[in-house]
Amino acid sequence: MPGTKKVFVKTFGCQMNVYDSERMSESLSPYGFTQTDSPEDADVVILNTCHIREKAAEKVYSELGRLRQIKDQRRENGKGTVVTVAGCVAQAEGAEIIARSPVVDLVVGPQSYHRLPDLVFRAQSESRRIVDTNFPEEDKFAKLPERVVSNAPAPGGARLASAFLTVQEGCDKFCTFCVVPYTRGMEFSRPVASLLDEARRLIERGVREITLLGQNVNAYHGEGPDGSDWTLAKLIAAMGDLEGLERVRYTTSHPHDMGDDLIAAHRDVPKLMPYLHLPFQAGADRILAAMNRKHTADQYRALIDKIRNARPDIALSTDIIVGFPGETETEFAQTLALVEEIGFAQAFSFKYSARPGTPAAKMDDQVAEDVKSERLQRLQGLLAVHTSRFNADCVGRTVPVLFERMGRQEGQLVGRSPYLQPVHAAGEQDLLGRIIPVEISGSGANSLMGVIRAA
Ligand code: 5AD
Ligand code: SF4
């Protein structure tokens, strides 16, 4: 009976979790579930969690506190609720979550969520608490139902103009600070044919931009239709050939896997957007070595030069960690210097957070919290100047904008420039899902304002 049951999904963390959340709720739709925005109405609640830093992981428990009241309230009204913890906290903590939080019925890891309908059914009918954090032999992507992306406008008139597509998952790089190899498992690339198939289905439903996702996406090496190994560059070119798709992006990359063919794709594939997220984490070679990053600061600089030669207008983005164990003031200054030198359009910066089971958590000379906070503040001050400058430099130019949703103000549209900046412009709802030239008239800390030139 379609539409008789409801699922509420809350997503924490990275874009891959956003993708996984979509696939999880889609997997329940053949069993009569529709999505809801309010947990009060939900027969199944899924928290799709992130374990990358302590703060992210803690959010789950505060959310579970809130859910406990909702679940009690529903029970008083004779309704059951299956409270599910999915994602990376589920993988990392498993049965501990069940022990710590009586409200939780089901714990499911990122590699076993294709079993969700069965697990939910068992949790409901056997009324017992279940943990599935296996790394099964079978490929979850082969088991999941095909994409059922809704074509109906969402509340606020948004259409799905831009979509994520996981092409690679897991990581064997073992940066010493990072939990990803433990929560997502070893590197795995999906076969090309299934990716092109999924991309076509997204395009049929109105998607104009696809972001190829992977924890280490540029290490992609999937089986091609001819049985040979394909690189990410080859996959991007094939995506670029799909009719109806206008834009291709990819994230996240590791400098070590930034091959020449991928750099060349930024010059040769018109649909590949001039934007690259390439984390460098720290500016001092001693810290980079302790992080097991497999590159030096100079190698990163040389790589950026090469990329800028191939695509001079490329906007660069990065991730930076401050206060890794043993980081001195001088070493932190090298991070600031590298930022100053490269000039990132966008950046994400974090205080180092010791994660259970990772080598860096056991290192001596952990940096004091107040020192980390002070360094982060200085770094973010500098990054903000660069982002504002990058945005201000766009004023006066006309750039193609893919409109994705209505803005908060009446008659306002919000879209993205090729450089991933949010762009606000006055316009009609029928421009959603279309790419339109916009003359940039103003800039802010994190977005642009513009005037539509022609529709
Ligand atoms: N502490 C702080 N930041 C971290 N990141 C990954 N692990 C940690 C950690 N233990 C950051 C890195 C990575 C981004 C996704 O999160 O910068 O690129
Ligand atoms: Fe973590 Fe990225 Fe390093 Fe993998 S490559 S271990 S995801 S920081």
Instruction: List all distinct small molecules, including ions and cofactors, that are bound in this structure.
Output: 5'-deoxyadenosine, iron/sulfur cluster
Helix content: 25-40%
Total helical segments: 14
Biggest sheet, strands in spatial order? Answer: 2-1-3-4-5-6
Q: What are the salient characteristics of this protein?
A:
14 helices; 5-stranded mixed beta barrel; 21 strands; binds 5'-deoxyadenosine; 455 residues; 22% strand; 6-stranded parallel sheet; binds iron/sulfur cluster; alpha/beta
Structure description:
This protein is an alpha/beta fold and 455 residues long. It contains 14 helices and 21 strands. The chain has helices at 15-28, 54-76, 87-93, 95-100, 116-125, 140-143, 180-183, 192-204, 232-240, 260-268, 285-290, 297-310, 329-342, 369-392, and strands at residues 5-11, 33-35, 44-49, 82-86, 106-108, 130-132, 162-166, 168-169, 188-189, 209-213, 221-223, 229-231, 247-251, 275-277, 315-322, 346-351, 398-406, 412-416, 422-426, 435-443, 448-452. The model has no long low-confidence stretch (mean pLDDT 94). Iron/sulfur cluster is lined by residues 171, 173-175, 178, 180-181, 215-216, 254.
